[in-house]
Amino acid sequence: MSLTLEGCMVNSVSSQTRYKSKIYAVMEVKGTSLQMQLDSGATCNVMPLQYVPEGINVNSPESTVSLKMYSQGEMTVQGTCKIPVRNPKNRKKYLVHFVVVDAKNCVPLLGSRAIQQMELITVRFENISLPETEINQVEESTKQCMTKEEVYSEFRDLFKGIGQIPGIIHLTTDPSVPPVVAPPHRVPVAMKPKLKKELARLEGLNIIEKVVEPTDWVSNLVIMTKTNGKTRICIDPKPLNEALKREHYPLPVIEDVLPQLCDVKVYSKADLKEGFLQCTLDEESSQLTAFQTPWGRYRYKRMPFGIKPAPELFQKLDQNL
């Protein structure tokens, strides 16, 4: 309905329209579909405690904090966490910072900043007369990207240690191939301190552990010096690779990737730190990776570099995140 008033057209805003007062979207969290409310008036993202996926650490608040709702009610905050969220509509993935609350009747909620960044709702700033205090903020957000220092500061926990990709890897062997126990190789004296330090680092990160029981497979150790001068240890899995079966999971090729980038304006490069070591092996597979050192045998609890099916197994886990 519209009215004409002294030559001006006045459009009416009615409650009886196709526009909804509440908007919900289905998002995937660790493979589970969750209905989330999109709230342009919320200043934070809210996740009820019962929906926080297993394995996600909830950081306790430094002091007693509560969320004030639109209805003036309050909810006690249990903490905060970052949760991987995937939009099944466009297949884009996001790491979203949530405030965790213990509220049974609350649905997961994505706030104003998140729904704009995830391109779920677009604000037409050209149709808005902004207060002066907001103008500079909008101009900055539309013209500038986060600096490297800002990214590191906001997501500091992602740059510490070695991460862990969800999922468990099983290595399948051909039973017709007999196990091999490789004789130990001599380690140069000059390399021993660096090797011992690297073994201690990996053991401290729960990536390797000492082996005291007999194992059918024992591989030799390979020591490499990276371009940054640090030491990387691998196993020489040539005999083991004869027995390991490949996953035959398709790896992406550049011809498939380039068409997806045709309309992209901003490019980012991300590298999973020691990516294979972020993949967890099951107990049976871990026993296959035992290797010799001057201080006894160790085995990998994460997927080591050099084994034949590693690239395909890594791609499978990464693509299913």
From TrEMBL:
Protein name stated in the entry: Reverse transcriptase domain-containing protein
InterPro entries associated with the record: DNA/RNA_pol_sf, Peptidase_aspartic_dom_sf, Retrovirus_Pol_polyprotein, Rev_trsase/Diguanyl_cyclase, RT_dom
Domain Reverse transcriptase: 226-317
SUPFAM superfamilies: Acid proteases, DNA/RNA polymerases
Gene3D superfamilies: 3.30.70.270, Acid Proteases (2.40.70.10), HIV Type 1 Reverse Transcriptase, subunit A, domain 1 (3.10.10.10)
Taxonomic lineage from the root: Eukaryota, Metazoa, Echinodermata, Eleutherozoa, Echinozoa
Domain of life assignment: Eukaryota
Species of origin: Holothuria leucospilota
Pfam families: RVT_1 (PF00078)
